[in-house]
Amino acid sequence: MISALLSLLLAASAHSAWASTLTVTGLGFGEQVPLYINAVTNSPNPGTNENEYAYQIKVTIDGIPAIAMCVDLFTNISYATYNTDAMPVNTMTWGPRVTWLYENFGRFAVTSEQAAAVQIAIWDIVHDGGDGLAAGNIQAQATTRTSLVNAANGFVTSSVGQVGTHAFLYHNVSLSTGAPAQTLIALASPEPATFGFAGVTLIALGLLRRRQ
Fold it and tell me: Which of 42, 102, 187, 206 is most buried, with most CB under 10 Å away?
C-alpha cells in the first residue's frame, strides 16, 4: 500500500510546476536565418518570408544564469523580466526529444552556425514533428545557407528516439499584463526538483511512521 502511494506521489511530483522569475539578459551564439513560415498553411504560396533570430538566449532564472533556447517560434520575447512557470519537459510530446538536443548541443554550441542549426531543428520538431526543412510549415529558403540547412536537418535526424530529462520548459508571461511571452527551454538549477523529491520522501516517511 505504501509503495503504491509513494509511486503516485513521485508521479505527481514529476508533473508539477513551480513559479519563478525569468529575466532575458542577452543573446549567445546564433544568427538570423531566412525561413519560410506557415509554408503549408499558405500553400500554394511558399509562406511568409522571414528572417528568424535563431540564437541562444541568455537568461537568469531566480537570479541563476542559464542558456535558454526557444520552443515557441510564434510568440515574442524581449529583454525584460517575466513571471514564469517551470514545467517538466515530459509534459509535451516533443519535450524529451528537444531536451536531448538542447542538453547535448544547444547550450554547449561554440559557433553561431551550430547554435542556429540546433534552434531551427527544435522549431522543426515542435511545430512540424521533425519533418526536415524541405517540408511542413517551417522550411528553408533558397537563400538559406546550405551548410546551415544540412546541419539543422542532421540534428533533426539524430534526435529521433533520443530522450533528455534534465531541462525544464519555462512558460513566461508579462509581469505587468500577464500577456503570454515565448516559452523557453533551459537548465538553470536542480534545486526545485530536488526539493520536490525531498518533500515526497518526507511525506512517505510520515505515512510509514503512522502505520507503525
Answer: 102
| Domain locations in the chain as residue ranges | 19-189
Q: What is the mean pLDDT of each run of 10 residues along the chain (212 residues)?
A: 36 54 97 87 63 96 96 94 95 96 96 98 97 94 96 98 96 95 86 40 34 38
